[in-house]
Structures are given as C-alpha cells and as structure tokens.
C-alpha cells in the first residue's frame, strides 16, 4: 500500500462555479444591450467597446507584470470593467477617451488596492467619474447620440439633450416661475408632457444616452438570466429601483407631492444598468442581507436627491460610488443574528 | 423567519448533487469478517475505554474487551471470535494512533451465549434499559459518536418532551440509513419506542428527506402496523437537513439557543441506526459489533452497502468491493461534506463510520485559492447565519477575538460555505483552526 492519497479538510466536493465563470456569464448577459447599442447608435459603439476592453486588459496585464504578480487577466474581470466603462460613455466620445477611462479604472480603481477583491469602489464607475471630472464636455454632450428611429431626447424639437437633461431644465423653469416668460413656462410643461409620452422609446432604447444604458428591455433580459443563475440577487436592484420610483413619485412632480412620474424616472438615464449591473458588483456591495437592502435604498435616495435637487441631471454613478464607501460599515451594522441567538442588547 | 421558511426547513443550506443512485437500491450485504480486527478503545466522544483483556485471551463475538473510562465513555466488544494478538497503538480514522485491541479471527463465528431475545424487555425499568444500552457500547451512529446513554440521562431540570429520529441522511453519496430504514424498519421503530419510554417524551417524530419516498412509506406503514404514536416528517431535500439544530428547527420550529443543546428546548435527537442498535441492545442484550456502511464513489470498482464488523480495516472492505480503481485519489470516511480524508487504509471501520467514499484523482484535486470577491454565496449558504467570509479573514489575520465575537464557535463545520465558494477558499479549514485557537484561549482564561 504505497500509494499516497490526497488528504485535506472537509468538504471534499465543490460547486461548479468559479470566478471566471461568474465574470464571463455577466459579460455574456451584457451582450444583448451591446448589440442594441450598435443597432441604435451605429458601429462606432463597437469600436468604443473594443478599445475600452483591450485597454483594460492590457492595463491589468502590464500592472501585474510590473508588480511581479501573477497575470490573471483571463479571469474576465478586466474585460467586464472595460465593457462597463464603455457602456457608461456617450456614443460620440473621441476614441481615446474610453482607453484613458479603462486604464484609470484598472490602475487606480483596482490594482492600487491589490487587485480583484480588494477594491473598495466599482472600478468602471470610478473610471467614469474620472472622465466626467477631467473632460466634462465629452461626457455630458449627447448631441451625437442620435438613435436610429428616434431622437436624443425623445422630443422631436430637442436634439441635443437626453430626457433627464430636458426634464431638469424644464423643471427648473417651472420651479422658478418668476424668472421666466409665460411662453417659456408653456414650453416647459409641454416638454415634460412629451417626455412622459416617450416611455416606449425609453423602454426599447430608442433614445439618447450612454452606450449601454439606454435599452431597458435588453438590460433586463440579461439581468433576469443573472438572477436565475443567482449571480445577482434581487435585494440590491429591487430596493434601488423601488426607492427611486417611490421618491420620484412623491417628490418628482412640478405640481406638488405625489405628482411625479416614477416610470419615466426608472426607465431613463443609467438607473437600470446601474441597479442591475453596477450596484450589484459583488466586491463592492455588502454581504449581509440587511446590508444589501440598506445599500439599495441608499443608492436610490442619493440618486433621487441628485436628479431632483443636484447640479447634475443624473446621479446613478455617484450614488453607487458613495454607497460603495459605506459597504464595510453596512456589513458591520447589519451583522445577522446567529441561528438560535438572542438579539444583541 | 415566517411563512414557508417556518415549515419543514431551515434558513440557509445548499443543494449539492446527491450521487445516491449508485447504491440506494443495493440491499445490505454481509461483509465477510477479516483475518484480524483492530478495535480502537476510543470510538466515541469522551474518555477512552480501558482494556480488560490481555494478549492471548480467547474471545467470542460480543465479549467485552474494555470498560468505560468515565461517565462519558462506552465499552467495546469483540467483533470476531478468536484470540487477542496485541494491545497496542494502531492507525485510527481520525488520523492519529490510538490504543487498540487486535483479535485474530478463528473463523468460528462463536457468539457469547447470553445473547438472545428477551420477551419481557418492554417491562424493564428505565434504569435497566439505559444500563443495557451502555453495556452494549452504543455511541451515536450518524457520525458524531456521542455516547448514547449520556443523551438519555438529561439533568433533572431539563424536561424532554420531544424525541426525534434522524433519517435525513443529507450527506451526498451515503445510503446506509436509507437501506436500514427499508430493510429493518421494525428494529428502528421498536428502538424508538424504547428511547421514547426512557425519555418520557410526549411526541416522537422521524425526519426523512423527501428524496427517499420508499423509506418514508415503509416507515409510515411500520408505525401504523405497530400502533405507535410517532409521526414521519418528509423534509426538504437540502443540506444540512440532518444537522441536529437544523433538523429540530424543521420538525418542531424550535431553535436550539446558540451555544446550547437540544435538551435546552426539550428535544433529543438520535440517528435511525442508533435506534436499531438500541433495540438490539435492550431487547436482545446484543452489543454493537457491526454496522451498515456505504462503500461508494468513482474510485470503488463495485459500490455496495455492507454490514461490516467493527474493527475491519478499510483495505479489507475495499478488497471485498472489487478493489479501488487506478485513479482513486482520495479516501473519505463519512460523506463528502463532513467526512475525514484518510491516509492509511489500515485504519478500521468504527462505530461512527457511515460510509467510505473514494473520489478519483480529478475530483480530489483542489483548485487554487483565489481572492475573495465578496459574492456572499457563503453568507447565504450558512445554516447558522454566520459570516464565513469574515470569519476566515479574521482567522487569516490572527484576529481571534473578532472571530469569537462573530460567533465562530457556533459553526457546525457543515461545509456549506466552502462548497459554494467560487474563489475555492477552504473556509472550513480556516474556521476550524480559528475555533481551536478561540477554545485554547478560553481554556487558558479559566
Ligand atoms: S460557517 Fe460553519 S456552519 Fe456556516 S456554512 Fe460554514 S461550516 Fe457551515
Ligand atoms: S463564497 Fe468565497 S468568494 Fe464569496 S464571499 Fe464567501 S469567501 Fe468570499
């Protein structure tokens, strides 16, 4: 009996899941939205995605080489970061912009902290925030984002602003009636009415915006599959979207409380992409059940505050980044009660 | 938890592949006794037993070879007839060497002569019943090997109202309890009747996972036939359904307090195999000399359910199963979730051996550990509502006080967390190490 057998502590069997499997599955479920963006905005978006992905992977490989660490770009996480970054820029940005964003996302957003698993904030969102701070013009002008069969804003007469931009401007007018002429006020109310009629465009993605965020239906198809595979849970996205819907319904209308249009707010901007694909990022969201619920609610509250009262029309990225920073605290505050344990006094 | 969670289940848990098809329909066969048996004097939790035989002594099957080393201890018995050839340390399935009695088998299969059916066993007093159970050397046969008589003697202030038999057999691959329920339902139910009397319980239930509909049916019929007031609960197929606290939760909806015992909430749980052995011990004064073991896995040529004399070396058992395949990679005593990897096939079958699982080399190789991606799969899987990810990280950084305050000692080592981890982190390994450290610290403090 000379043969040596493997000896290790239990358990002796394991799931078929692995980090690469999770990453590539998430990437795969983002493909429909990518195809949608090529359909709506043209082949240029494909270039942006390719450049962002290649830059992210290259940046990770180079940094790992320099740090004399094993090169782990095959795990798919850099590809995912690159793809998400591409999804977060306008179709009209210069082609170097996604490259810069990806390199920043990987180098500063991820590798500085020690690589996969150690980054406190979502790297793609950090890359986007960096681009927004450094080249605000490129990141906020959507006049080049004219979708096939639709308009940037969802309103025929307005060609250079996204629905959320238009809404913000129109509500500004209505909230400060003394500063505007009656004609302007009329126009503003009409614009809001038209926006609220563009729900179908928003749902399908026939609207201006960032590459990957516009088609709600395609994003939801991918997200449904991820939920079915249990790679994302329902707690973060549902509480996030639910909070946004509730708060915009209560506070989002120009005619007082409970006159807002929650459906418009949920479907527009980057909320669906953010709620299902970025707030759910495993590394940067809480692990406890309670933590995930508070995380989703927190993202929703901050998003609505920025959209309704802040300087930007959209607040998804910042709200997720802010909540990322709270993740360790949320985990600590919401520690589950051990089975059979008493409530902590 | 409310709603469906409060019925036949518990929070957390996982669904590993069952792999029971291979052996679940194979009737129990008798494994021929080996040329010599090696009977460790420690096969139970508690103090080792003390040898009462000497080299050269002639023994029959069932003769005592050792006596209890304390209250929490049980004697052992000869499992073949023959001569004591050595009393020395020998390999034990726990991976250590333990004082053992080696008996050369004379092939006569001679039994001790005072064993036989006692018609009046049901009139015996509680005390005598417990004495017979202790004298028969019974320790929990589900794998935990806690001395049975101790569980039957709760302190006076603990009122037991519920007796639960564990027939869940939630470990993948294992089918020994399943077969026993199909083939020996009467022994199990009669044994349960004895346990019920001893404890003075008011209700009795048997928990069986829903993937064994035939066993559920057979046991139901037997209970009806014997006119006993016990209930059968068909349980969700979910690991670890057979873990004591989770089983109690599923059946009674009571929760054993953290750090407490089932008796704190009026429950006692015994394995179905133990119940059958209780019947043998009380009704026939027959000591525990053999048990049913599932021999299975890709590394075994002919998987079987075998009735094996205690003390039979693993190598002998495998020979009887056609031997191991060339690519056998890992030998596990018990199931794949909580079983112990074996390095020495000279180690023997003991009272707590429910299965011998042999994985092939491909299944045995661990994938490389990767950084934790905080996926929370381990958190969602933990049946004790712990945070395995955090516990393992505390232990890695030697922050044992934090680990303790995050209830590391409540971990039941079920392996659910490590099973689901996509980063291949051996969470149980770290947590076990952490528990050891925390316990050492506590001991020192006292
Ligand atoms: S932490 Fe312990 S009790 Fe929880 S799943 Fe892991 S092994 Fe099981
Ligand atoms: S399952 Fe593994 S990777 Fe996921 S949180 Fe737990 S330890 Fe981390």
What does this structure look like?
Chain A has helices spanning 19-41, 44-66, 77-87, 96-107, 123-134, 136-140, 163-175, 182-196, 199-204, 216-228, 235-251, 262-267, 271-278, 289-309, 316-333. With 345 residues, chain A is mainly α. Chain A folds into two domains: 20-140, no CATH class; 163-207 and 232-331, no CATH class. Chain B is α/β, with parallel strands linked by helices and 446 residues long. Chain B folds into three domains: 28-114 and 287-363, Ubiquitin-like (UB roll); 123-284, NADH-ubiquinone oxidoreductase 51kDa subunit (Rossmann fold, 3-Layer(aba) Sandwich); 377-445, no CATH class. Chain B is built from 15 helices and 16 strands. Chain B has helices spanning 21-24, 126-135, 148-151, 176-183, 185-199, 213-226, 244-252, 272-284, 314-320, 361-364, 377-381, 388-396, 400-405, 416-420, 427-445, and strands at residues 29-30, 36-40, 50-51, 58-59, 66-67, 82-91, 97-105, 162-167, 203-209, 231-235, 267-271, 290-296, 304-309, 328-333, 340-342, 355-360. In chain B, the strands form four sheets. In chain B, strands 1-13-12-16-14-15 form a six-stranded mixed sheet, with helices on both faces. Chain B has a four-stranded antiparallel sheet with strand order 2-7-6-4, with no helix packed on it. In chain B, helix 4 runs parallel beside helix 6, helix 5 (185-199) packs across helix 8 and helix 12 (388-396) crosses helix 15 (427-445). Chains A and B meet through helix 1 of A and strand 14, strand 15, helix 10, helix 11 and helix 14 of B. Residues 372-378, 388-389, 420-423, 425, 427 of chain B line the site of one iron/sulfur cluster.
């Amino acid at each position: 009996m000379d043969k040596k057998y493997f000896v290790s502590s239990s358990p002796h069997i394991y799931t078929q899941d692995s980090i690469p499997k999770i990453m590539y599955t998430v990437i795969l479920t983002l493909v429909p939205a990518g195809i949608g963006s090529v359909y709506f905005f043209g082949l240029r978006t494909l270039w942006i995605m390719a450049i962002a992905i290649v830059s992210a992977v290259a940046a990770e490989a180079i940094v790992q080489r320099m740090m004399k660490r094993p090169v782990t770009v095959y795990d798919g996480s850099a590809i995912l970061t690159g793809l998400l970054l591409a999804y977060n820029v306008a179709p009209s940005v210069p082609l170097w912009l996604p490259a810069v964003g990806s390199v920043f996302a990987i180098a500063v957003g991820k590798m500085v902290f020690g690589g996969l698993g150690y980054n406190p904030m979502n790297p793609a969102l950090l890359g986007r925030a960096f681009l927004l701070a450094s080249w605000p013009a490129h990141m906020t002008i959507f006049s080049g984002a004219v979708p096939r069969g639709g308009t940037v804003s969802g309103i025929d007469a307005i060609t250079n602003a996204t629905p959320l931009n238009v809404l913000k401007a129109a509500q500004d007018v209505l909230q400060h009636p003394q500063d505007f002429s009656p004609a302007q006020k009329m126009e503003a109310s009409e614009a809001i009415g038209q926006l609220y009629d563009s729900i179908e465009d928003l749902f399908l993605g026939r609207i201006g915006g960032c590459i990957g965020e516009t088609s709600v239906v395609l994003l939801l198809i991918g997200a449904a599959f991820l939920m079915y595979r249990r790679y994302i849970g329902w707690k973060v996205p549902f509480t996030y979207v639910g909070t946004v819907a509730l708060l915009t319904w209560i506070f989002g209308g120009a005619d007082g409380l409970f006159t807002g249009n929650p459906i418009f707010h949920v479907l527009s901007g980057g909320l669906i992409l953010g709620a299902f694909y970025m707030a759910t990022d495993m590394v940067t969201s809480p692990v406890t059940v309670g933590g995930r619920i508070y995380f989703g609610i927190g993202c929703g509250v901050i998003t609505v505050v920025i959209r309704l009262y802040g300087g930007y029309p959209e607040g998804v990225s910042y709200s997720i980044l802010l909540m990322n920073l709270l993740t360790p605290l949320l985990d600590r505050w919401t520690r589950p009660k051990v089975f059979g344990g008493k409530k902590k006094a | 938890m409310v709603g469906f969670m409060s019925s036949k289940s518990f929070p957390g848990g996982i669904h590993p592949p069952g792999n029971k098809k291979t052996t679940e329909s194979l009737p129990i066969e008798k494994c021929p006794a080996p040329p010599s048996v090696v009977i460790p004097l420690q096969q139970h939790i508690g103090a080792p037993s003390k040898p009462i035989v000497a080299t050269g002594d002639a023994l029959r099957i069932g003769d005592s070879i050792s006596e209890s080393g304390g209250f929490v201890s049980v004697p052992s018995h000869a499992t073949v007839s023959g001569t004591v050839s050595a009393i020395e340390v020998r390999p034990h399935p726990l991976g250590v060497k333990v004082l053992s009695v080696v008996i050369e088998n004379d092939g006569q299969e001679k039994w001790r002569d005072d064993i036989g059916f006692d018609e009046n066993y049901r009139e015996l007093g509680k005390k005598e019943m417990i004495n017979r159970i202790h004298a028969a050397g019974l320790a929990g046969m589900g794998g935990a090997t806690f001395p049975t008589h101790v569980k039957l003697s709760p302190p006076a202030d603990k009122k037991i109202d519920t007796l639960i038999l564990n027939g869940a057999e939630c470990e993948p691959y294992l089918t020994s309890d399943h077969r026993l329920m199909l083939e020996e339902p009467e022994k199990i139910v009669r044994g349960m009747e004895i346990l019920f009397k001893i404890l003075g319980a008011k209700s009795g239930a048997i928990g069986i996972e829903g993937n064994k509909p035939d066993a559920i049916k057979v046991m139901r019929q037997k209970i009806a036939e014997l006119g006993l007031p016990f209930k059968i609960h068909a349980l969700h197929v979910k690991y670890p359904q057979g873990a004591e606290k989770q089983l109690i939760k599923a059946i009674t909806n009571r929760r054993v307090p953290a750090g407490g015992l089932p008796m704190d909430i009026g429950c006692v749980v015994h394995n179905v195999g133990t119940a059958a052995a209780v019947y043998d011990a009380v009704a026939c004064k027959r000591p525990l000399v053999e048990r049913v073991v599932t021999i299975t896995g890709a590394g075994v040529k002919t998987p079987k359910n075998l009735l094996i004399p205690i003390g039979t070396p693993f190598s002998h058992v495998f020979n009887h199963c056609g031997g191991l395949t060339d690519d056998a990679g890992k030998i596990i005593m018990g199931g794949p979730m909580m079983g112990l990897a074996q390095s020495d096939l000279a180690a023997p079958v003991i009272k707590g051996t429910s299965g011998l699982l042999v994985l092939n080399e491909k299944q045995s190789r661990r994938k490389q550990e990767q950084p934790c991606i905080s996926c929370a799969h381990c958190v969602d899987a933990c049946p004790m509502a712990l945070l395995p990810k955090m516990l393992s990280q505390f232990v890695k950084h030697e922050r044992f006080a934090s680990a303790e305050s995050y209830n590391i000692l409540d971990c039941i080592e079920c392996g659910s967390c490590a099973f689901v981890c996509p980063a291949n982190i051996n969470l149980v390994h770290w947590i076990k190490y952490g528990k050891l450290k925390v316990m050492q610290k506590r001991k020192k403090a006292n």
